[in-house]
Amino acid sequence: MKLSFIIYLVCGFQLMAFTSFSQNQVTLKVKNTSLKEILSQIESQTTFNFIYNNDEINSNQKFSIDVLEKDIAPTLGVLLKNTEIQYKFRKNLVILSNKKASNKKYTISGTVKDAATGETLFGANVFVVGKNQGTITNEYGFYSLTLAEGNYTLQISYLGYTSIDETLDLNNNIKRNFELQPTSNALDEVVITSDIKNKSQVRNLLSGVNTLKVTDIKQLPAFFGEPDINRAILTQSGVTSVGEGTAGFNVRGGNIDQNLTLLDEAPLYVSSHLWGLFSVVNTDAIKDITLYKGGIPARYGGRASSVLDIRQKEGNTKEFKGEGGLGTLFSRITLEGPIVKEKLIFLVSGRRSYFDLFFPLLGGDIKNSKMFFYDLNTKLSWNINENNKLFASGYFGADVMKLDETASANEPNEPDTSVDFRWKNATGTIRWNHLFSDKLFMNVSGIYSSYKYNLVSQNDNGGIINGAGTFKWSSGVENWIVKPDFTYYTNPNTKMRFGTNGTLYKFNPAELSSNEAGLSPKSFNVDKGLEIAPYYEIEKTWDKLSLNLGLRYSWFGNIGANTVAIYNPNFPLTVSTIINKKKYKKDEIIKTYSGFEPRLSLKYDLSDRKALKIGYNRTFQYIHLISNTAAALPFDIWKPSGKYIKPLEVNQISGGYTYDTSGRKYNIVIEGYYKTFKNFVEYKNGADLFINENIETQLLPAKGYAYGLEFGFYKNLGKLTGSFNYTYSVSKRKTTSKFNAENINNGSYYPSNYDRPHLLNITTNYNLSKKWDMGIFFTYQTGRPSTVPTGRLAFDGNPYLTYSKRNAYRIPDTHRMDISFTYKPTGNPNTKWQSSWNFGLYNVYGNSNAFSVFSTFQNNEVKTFKFSVLGTPIPFIAYNFKF
Fold this sequence. Notes:
- 7% of the residues lie in helices and 55% in strands.
- It is mainly β.
- The chain has three domains: 20-98, Phage tail protein beta-alpha-beta fold (3-Layer(bab) Sandwich), CATH 3.55.50.30; 105-198, Immunoglobulin-like, CATH 2.60.40; 309-882, TonB-dependent receptor, beta-barrel domain (Maltoporin, Chain A, Beta Barrel).
- It has a 22-stranded antiparallel β-barrel. Strands 14-21-22-17-18 form a five-stranded mixed beta sheet.
- The N and C termini lie far apart (88 Å).
- The relative contact order is 0.09.
- The model is unreliable at 1-22, 185-198, 407-411 and 461-468 (pLDDT under 50).
């Protein structure tokens, strides 16, 4: 009996102990449930009760948790992780309160890279989960975040890469580098959807900014199968050109010389090959492309309308790689890899056209002619240590056009003639990245850039065509630039950037030599200019409001040695009104200009997917492209501001609305702008700019304005992706000479050469199957303004044409459709070789878009004809490969 009683007591105590233990374990599986409800469920499963102050703890905030038979303490640890709520046990009570804010702050910094290649990622997002705090990486992949001591989860993401989450206990300064894996086309759409959130029009603080990825450019139907940066830029809203196959582009009512094109920070003065048919930069060598057309940060200057910032790859840090293509008219190859793994990396990329090799087969007058281009991109990156990196990059590209004509058998006495025309770009950049601390980042750049061209014409008698002398003409421009730039990361909501740009310009207008009678050798005075521009930017974010405020002060001096004509102030500038000439010594200042260039951008987040943006920019431009042709030509000349040419001043105000749908499947952007231009360079009627020593006598001062409305719609997910954008714009100007007789159109406003009110672009990409993709591009533009003959008159027995007012007519509207197909065969899994075929049609339905119009008299009537550059369908095929 006693033994039975003892056994009963022992079992009873064990049962009581087990019951007591089980009542302190929790099982929960709830999603998006209030804290109050979750605490109530824990109370029902345990012997504990919760105590908290409703004014201190928000019990309505939502949580999700999934635990199975876990003790109450670790359960609360999981539930309240990444919150400011702390808990304490007092017998059967759990007291909740807010953590006391720590006065200690620490910084986490490092770089974000591509895990496959080791390339740093510009613009990668580093955000704190659950907080409206974060930053993006700079041009060199560097980030810095300063936070209060505590536990955090960071999310690192970048468009086209798989996001990663990193949990850390921030109790000291930490250096942490991240590597993101590129998403694969083989991944299912759910995974890709999770990464597309970076393709947001809302997150960017600045308005009027377009970021282009090389993958997007390569999806566009390409002219002769060659992916091209310039053609990709022309698919953006607010960007036009004066015609197909022309050099340069126009942004929001500005001339082509108002665009600053940078390749690894070095300016390019001519950005195209073959008169504008192809970009001068091989797309395979490019990492990032950003077009600033609205909000231009204060660190950029020297041009008035836009900045196209092109960054070359740094090279694969992990293994040797290559890619290239064999096209209809030219081929390309890019090689990259480590010389010393993770330490010293190289990149080399080259292209060469070869259609001139077919000239001998065609025979006739062009059998001995040459017409080709080539370019070479190089880069060397040295990771010295964690705090120091050194980069050396260069570019060299040239166009060669040599036309030889051999005398025919029917005219044996005629001389053989030739014209040899060459133009080339060359740049070199040396950059040093240095980390002074985990908050202060420095980049110092030394840059050289040049553009030169040469023209030689002769015949077998040693003379100019149809003449008796040899004619040679050369010209060019050179830049030497020093740019120290500093970025200071104060905290996650505040970042400052400051530095100075110093540029020395050297312009060689022309050097002539000839044996022809009456044309003696001549060398024009070299124009030199010095531009110094310190700047400061601050970027700050509050709860819903973000601010980017910048101030740039630019000073420009036109310096000698040079000789400047002095004109009679009571008459227009002509050679006949020169009353004296003044000589300036070497480095003597001829004329100076300066001014403040404020920059302001504001963004207000209506929600995490809707935002309003507004911005203001003032920019000065101290150099000018002198050209009165419809399209810029390689032998146009550049002139600095000086005694008779003032700097261009542009003021722009812009604003817009951006909207991302749920999951960022669609983006919508609406932006408007208004710009004023002061001190335009305009040309007198009948201006003669060819080899003119007093070129200011052919120029007129002018002012103008431009305004527009841009609408963009982007689809980012699914088998069908692409964009639709429409722009309505107006660009007008008028001359402002104090001598009314020489003003154009009697001093009234008239459309600029690139005023094209309606612009429509549609870009689509459709995934037909695992192996086949299709791309379609369609564009429509209003015809550009033109000045046309209206009649003729006779003077002293000689007929002369009479013309309309400047730009009073328009050439016909233009439109074109391109289509391409890409085939990716199934590769051998045992080899790294990947390949694809790209083929299609440029100008599918053969629309003969007018580039210009010209008129002649036939039967005493004016007959007008249109001239088209690319008026027929052009098929293309290219083979692309990677290894």
